[in-house]
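Cast an eye over this sequence plus tokens and walk me through the fold:

***
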Amino acid sequence: MGTGNCIFFYGTGNENHRLGTGFLYTRVSAVKIVRFISDRMPYIVLKGHWCNTIDFNAHAPNKEKSDHSKDSFYEDLEQVFFIISLSTI
């Protein structure tokens, strides 16, 4: 979604647009990759002058959530770190 000189990358969230995550950037030309592993866990790769920068955002489930929900979150988190580690080698 673009607004003037900014662009907002966001996941689908739920019907109430709660618990989602996203990124707001002013330099759209710097955006190289945007990936949403889940609505709670995106990362973005920005082109830099000497090297790329990876911004990562996560919205962890709170302690009242089920163990299955927490386990799923941490499995996704491991997947993100694996993907990022492969792309930075």
